[in-house]
C-alpha cells in the first residue's frame, strides 16, 4: 500500500509538470514582454472547452482521493501490524545469533556476531556450567549456570523497582551479577553489548520460553545444583545470595512448611521471612517453574547443609 501511495503521488506530480510544459509550449510567448506582464486571457478563452477539461480533471482527482484516502486509512493498521511482526522476527533472528557461541561446538564454524551467552547458559538456554574465578577469594570452581527457558515465569512477579520480568532481565544482563560469574554486558556499564543487542537477545529468550523439564526422579541436590546454585553457590556455600551451610536454613525456618512456602512464593521486597530474614525481591517464586514435589525435595536438601 505504501508503494502504491508513493507511485500515485509521483504520477500526479509528473502529470502536473507535463501539463505546465505543454501549456507553455502551446502559448505564443512574446519576445519582448515578460510572461508576468502579459495580459491574461479574455473570458471567452477562460470559459471555453479548457475550463470544462480542467473541471473534469478536478472532478476525477476528487473521486480518486475520495476512494484512495479511506482505503489507505483502512489498510494502514494492517500494514503497521505486518511491519511490527517483521521487525520482531528480525530482532529474534539477530538475538539468536548474538546468544550463540562465537564458534559452533559441533561444526567449528565461526559466528562473528556470537557473544557466547550459550557457552554458559546452554545452546538452547537449558543451563550449563562454567569455571568461575572468585575475585574475592582467588579460588577457581565449577559453578552451575541457570537455565533461561523459564526465566520470564520465575520473575513473573519482579523484584521491587521493576515493572515486569523483562525489565529485571534486561537490568541483569546489562549490569551482570556481582559476586558471580555473570559479567556486565551493557555498553552503558562497560560491557560490549549495545541497547539494541540486549533487546534482541531478550526477544529471542522470550521466544523460546517453555516448561523446563527436570529429570524425573531427580534428587533435591540435583535440582538445587541446576537451579539454585548459580546464586547460593554449590553446596549452598553462598554467592550473590546468602549461604545455607551450617544449618542456617533450619534456624531460619524451624517449620519446614514455612520454608517450602518461602521457596514457592519467593521473597518480597521489605517483607520479613523466617526468624530473621528480610526480603529483597531477588529470590524468584519457584512455584512458577517447579512442582510442589520438586520444591519439597530442594527444601529437604537445603535443610541438611
Structure write-up:
The protein is mainly α and 305 residues long. 50% of the residues lie in helices and 5% in strands. It has a two-stranded antiparallel ribbon with strand order 1-2. A two-stranded antiparallel ribbon has the order 3-4. The chain is elongated and about 110 Å long. It starts with a helix and ends with a helix.
Instruction: Tell me about the largest β-sheet.
Output: 2 strands, antiparallel
Helix content: 40-55%
Globally, the shape reads elongated
N- to C-terminal separation? 66 Å
Unreliable stretches, pLDDT < 50, 5 or more residues? none
Beta content comes to: 5-15%
Tally the helices: 12
Number of strands: 4
Please tell me the overall pLDDT. Answer: 83
Order of helices and strands: HHHHEEHHHHHHHEEH
Radius of gyration: 34 Å
Going across the biggest sheet, name each strand in turn. Answer: 1-2
Classification by helices and strands: mainly alpha
Features:
two-stranded antiparallel ribbon, 5% strand, 305 residues, single chain, 12 helices, elongated, mainly alpha
Amino acid at each position: 500500500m505504501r508503494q502504491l501511495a508513493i507511485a500515485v503521488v509521483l504520477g500526479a506530480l509528473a502529470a502536473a509538470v507535463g501539463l505546465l510544459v505543454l501549456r507553455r509550449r502551446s502559448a505564443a510567448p512574446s519576445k519582448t514582454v515578460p510572461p508576468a506582464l502579459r495580459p491574461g486571457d479574455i473570458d471567452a478563452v477562460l470559459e471555453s472547452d479548457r475550463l470544462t477539461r480542467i473541471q473534469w480533471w478536478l472532478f476525477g482527482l476528487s473521486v480518486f482521493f475520495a476512494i484512495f484516502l479511506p482505503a489507505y486509512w483502512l489498510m494502514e493498521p494492517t500494514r503497521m501490524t505486518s511491519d511490527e511482526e517483521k521487525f520482531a522476527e528480525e530482532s529474534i533472528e539477530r538475538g539468536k545469533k548474538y546468544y550463540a557461541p562465537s564458534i559452533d561446538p559441533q561444526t567449528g564454524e565461526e559466528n562473528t556476531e556470537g557473544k557466547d551467552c550459550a557457552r554458559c547458559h546452554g545452546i538452547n538456554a537449558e543451563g550449563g556450567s562454567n569455571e568461575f574465578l572468585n575475585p574475592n577469594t582467588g579460588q577457581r570452581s565449577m559453578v552451575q549456570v541457570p537455565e533461561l527457558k523459564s526465566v520470564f515465569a520465575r520473575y513473573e512477579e519482579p523484584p521491587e523497582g521493576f515493572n515486569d520480568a523483562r525489565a529485571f532481565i534486561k537490568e541483569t544482563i546489562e549490569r551482570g551479577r556481582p559476586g558471580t560469574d555473570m559479567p556486565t554486558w551493557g555498553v552503558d556499564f562497560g560491557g560490549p553489548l549495545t541497547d539494541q543487542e540486549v533487546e534482541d537477545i531478550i526477544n529471542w529468550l522470550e521466544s523460546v520460553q517453555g516448561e523446563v523439564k527436570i529429570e524425573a526422579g531427580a534428587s533435591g541436590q540435583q535440582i538445587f545444583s541446576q537451579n539454585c546454585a548459580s546464586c547460593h553457590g554449590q553446596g549452598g556455600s553462598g554467592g550473590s545470595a546468602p549461604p545455607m551451610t551450617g544449618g542456617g536454613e533450619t534456624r531460619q525456618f524451624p517449620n519446614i512448611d514455612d520454608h517450602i512456602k518461602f521457596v514457592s512464593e519467593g521473597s518480597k521486597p521489605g517483607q520479613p521471612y523466617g526468624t530473621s530474614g528480610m526480603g529483597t525481591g531477588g529470590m524468584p517464586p519457584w512455584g512458577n517453574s517447579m512442582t510442589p514435589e520438586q520444591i519439597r525435595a530442594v527444601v529437604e536438601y537445603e535443610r541438611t547443609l
